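Fold this sequence, please.
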Amino acid sequence: MQLGTIEGEVTTSSFKFRAVEEVRKFDFISVKSNEKWILGQVDEVTKKPDGETMAHANIIGYRDKGLTKAPRRVIEPDSIVYKADQELISDTLGLDDEGLRIGNLETNPDIDIHVNAEDFYKHFAVLAQTGAGKSYLTGVLIEEMLEDDFPVLILDPHGEYSSLRQENPENDEERQAYDIKEFSPNTDINPEAVPLRFSSRNFEKKELTTLIPDSLTNSQMGVLYNALKRLQEKDEDYNLNDLMDAVSNEDSTAKWNLLNYLEQLDDSGLFSDSPMDLEELVEPGRATIINLRAVEPETAEMTAYMLAKKLFDLRKRNQIPPFITVIEEAHNFTPEKGFGQTISNPILRKIASEGRKFGLGLGVISQRPARIDKNVLSQANTQFILRVTNPNDLKAISKSFEGITSEVEDMIKSLPPGVAFVLGNEYPVMTDVRTRKSKHGGETQTSDTYVEKESVEVFETRKSRGELESETGEKYTPAYYPLYLLKNDEKKVLVDGVKNNIKAERPKISGSEKEVYKKLQRGKEKSEILEDLEMDLSKLTAIIDGLRKKGFVKEGSNDVAESVLDLEIEDQSVEAEELIDYEVSEDEARSHLKNSEVRKVRYPYFSKGETVYDPILGKEI
């Protein structure tokens, strides 16, 4: 079908055309140039007051000897633009017609999108903000892997993948239940799971020092070494209780803190004289779910570490078949520097860099790409990216993966729920995720069943609702309190959107003050700041004193005075009933700060009965 004619300036990467037929954003178009059919994609459509429609298209290229190539010659102005046919689209994009079926091309529903099954052993990532369909898409990927007889191990912090054992009642065409086995460190909250237990016998020093969350002092290391040496000299098996007895018999006073650490390991419930057989966790065509709902973060980290370490060792010795490990909320198990440390991070980094050589694929699933260790994220050979709007997360995605241009970034920010960019082919492919065959354990987020939500700006929390529910095993209801953020050349003010009173305020600070303040926020000492900023002591002292007078630094110390105004603000999609109404107008709020910009922002709370949890303060109020 002829769509229009090229007009104006043409480059080797894009052109504009006057449309005589309906054209939509993201439509694929074709133009014949120099005896080759060139594929392009519409990225913007404009309608003028006189009814004329102009469209801007980016040039993808043409297929030559099995490769997609960009044209080196400019397409002639006045060339005719056509609607691209399915064969040209599939051929130019290098789409396979075999492999794991993820869904269909969003703009052309008759074209199925497949991913090479073996690519999952080269690691993959599913990244999206909350509510975009991240867990739903992951469920689709797991279904496809199971149907291809993959063994799959899932670290499931919220207990939402157990529903793989149930058919999807909303899918009349393809319903299927899958073979799963479920384990959990907490079977009180997760009664359908089998207790997850590792061997408590014959711990070695290296493993113990990894599992203990704090660094041991030299004295404590000496006590541990002596205790282990005495036990090993007996040439008998010993367990965790034997080790604690041996430590308690040492003369050093350093034994008491060490005993406390060992008791914490024992109290975790992860270690037993009757452990599970780790080889049973990996079986072709079956999903093994590690349900971590209501499991303490420290225990969840130990679980991730023990599973990754033990199974990787078994795989290297070829004692278990190749398998895929899917890690939900991956930013909690392998965080980027500056977002905490976990005992599971080093082994997951090792698997990310070496796992593919041994047939151990890693699936990294997260709504916070910026918080995932970049060394892990960048190893993902295939990426599935749904809607992401947070600038830091977009930046992390762009740095980690090839093919993320500024145009693709803009597309990612506007993706509808249930639609993902699939990166791994030669060109990012916008895919409408297929319907689940098994029941979805979370909120259904396909494009067909999605409930419209309202996009609001919300202060970033220290703990998400999912993390809170995972720790407590209880469901919480969110509420979003209305605030106005006012800003002019002199200061920032936060105004209550119901009571019209000032909740927080801070003056603006200069460039050098900002630099020093950021260093103090990271916990740096004066000596480190002096070296980093190449500043003399008197100037630094004067700046810190100035920050203290302005309320940025606490009296009597160099510790920063935390404020809600320091927090990042992120876009969230929330249901209208979760929003508390504004009772104060923008003009009324602006009266607190003249000549100011006004921005609506929300403060989140999570409630359960009469209990209200403040996720920014990290406590019940």
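Residues 208 and 262 are 9 Å apart (CA to CA). The radius of gyration is 28 Å.
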